[in-house]
Amino acid sequence: GLQRAPCRYADLHPLWQSELSVSGGTRQSPINIQWRDSVYDPHLKPLKIHYDPTTCLYIWNNGYSFQVEFDDSADKSVIMGGPLENHYRLKQFHFHWGAINEWGSEHMVDSKVYPAELHLVHWNPVTSTSFEEAIMENNGLVVIGVFLKLGAHHAGLQKLVDALPAVKHKDTIVEFDVFDPSCLMPSCPDYWTYDGSLTTPPLTESVTWIIKKTPIEVDQNQLEEFRMLLFTSAGEEEKRMVDNFRPLQPLMNRTVRSSFR
Ligand SMILES: CC[C@H](C)CCC(=O)Nc1ccc(S(N)(=O)=O)cc1
Ligand SMILES: [Zn+2]
Fold this sequence. Notes:
There is one protein chain. By secondary structure, this protein is mostly beta strands. Helix content is 8%, strand content 28%. The strands form two sheets. Strands 2, 3, 4, 5, 6, 7, 9, 10, 11, 12, 13, 14 and 15 form a 13-stranded mixed beta sheet that branches. Strand 4 and strand 5 form a beta hairpin. The termini are far apart. The relative contact order is 0.25. It binds (4S)-4-methyl-N-(4-sulfamoylphenyl)hexanamide and zinc ion. Zinc ion binds next to strand 7.
């Protein structure tokens, strides 16, 4: 039969993402969060975050973003509270960004787009025995989204930025130990939450999204370091890793809840 060309991720320009939404998807991500349509839910608790910096393992370039992986073999770096019924383990975090500061985030707030967005990916160890299994479970995952805006230098992020030249090419990896991702959290506790999906294949509808209302500030040099990464492997014609965000998806029959009035 016809040999299907390997469908490499970097070849799927974000524009094609929207065509790839899970067939008949009813809860796809990202979305535009309309402040006025969100519903304040007084039952939403404060989000509790306990990350153990020694669970940080390494950084790698997966051809779509750069990703920091964590040891998720025990309940050491966990989140709980918020809209969650139990605790979830941190597996990895990564970012999405644009070629220029005018765009880059996946979610939007009242159609306002940010230059970048951080995703902290967690899985439910109570209903699943592994991250890979949780991806297929309804509400198997929780992703915390944090917007990045252009402003002051972010000292915590700089440790990450300094490691990026070592993972310039797809499928490169560098050891990265002792990093506490809570330094990337805004101090404001306010968030929105809604039921959605992964924003890259397998696009499974297994994610409880928690989007922080307040962005963190990073400076121009830090954003430009993100844009020096490559989608391509060493030896290939270089393609800058930029615009690795998925287009907005329809809200359909969903309500976004807010933890704040
Ligand atoms: C076979 C499945 C494979 C193991 C999945 C690897 C993975 O982690 N995927 C993933 C995670 C998070 C997001 S996002 N951008 O936070 O919605 C998108 C995709
Ligand atoms: Zn993401």
